[in-house]
Amino acid sequence: MKTQIISENTIMVYFTNTIDAETSEKVTQALYALQNSLGNFILDAIPSYHSILITVDILQTGMSDFQQQVEILLSQSSSTARPLPHLEIELPVYYGEEVALDAAEICAHSGLSWPEVVEIHSQTSYRVYAIGFALGFAYLGNLDSRLQMPRKSTPRTRVPKGSVAIAEQQTAVYPKASPGGWHIIGRTPISLVDFERENLSLFYIGAQVRFKAISRQQFIDMGGDLNTSEQIDTDKRAKS
């Protein structure tokens, strides 16, 4: 672990360069330690795969003093770290052809049938490694090697809200309609961002996530939207 002052009020904490559960656990442990012990001096803390970017309240402390406190705190907490309890989040997903916009491409690349793809994707437990890109967008890993594939060479201009997607070693859910270059494998009827919740996002760093395959009718009953006409029209305009 090392720290580096990035600007007049931000500091970066670096861990290893690997993307794995062990490194993610170190980041999660450090994040909780920082929030619990130095939270009065922190305006924001953004964790990633192997680092934490901290925005410091410089009206409360100097950067050099804060950096020293961070290094002392994390060196002490690393020697006494214990596994944190992580609740498992279960997210219902409809993998039907209406919403699995890249089903044919995924099958062609993997050499698997669609039922095999769905089974592999829904039987894996994923860890929340990072949250970014958009509020509620979580990077989940690690994706089974049989489903790993590069991002799309030409991103979609609009991916429907709730779309579940895969790319490289990761899977993710789009919390709102937005551009995206991941391969769409299904859709969830659950809203990922709730402003009534203390934690706006359904996801949090270190959590375990499982996808539960549901039927078309279950998806509709849970408030899911099957409409893809806007997406198809947008793609057609992009190609014209």
Automatic annotation (TrEMBL):
Keywords for the protein's UniProt record, in alphabetical order: ATP-binding, Hydrolase, Nucleotide-binding
UniProt domain Carboxyltransferase: residue ranges: 1-203
Family matches, as Pfam families: CT_C_D (PF02682)
Keyword Aminoacyl-tRNA synthetase: no
Keyword ATP-binding recorded: yes
GO MF: hydrolase activity
Listed InterPro entries: CT_C_D, Cyclophilin-like_dom_sf, PxpB
Name the record gives this protein: Allophanate hydrolase
UniProt source species: Vibrio algivorus
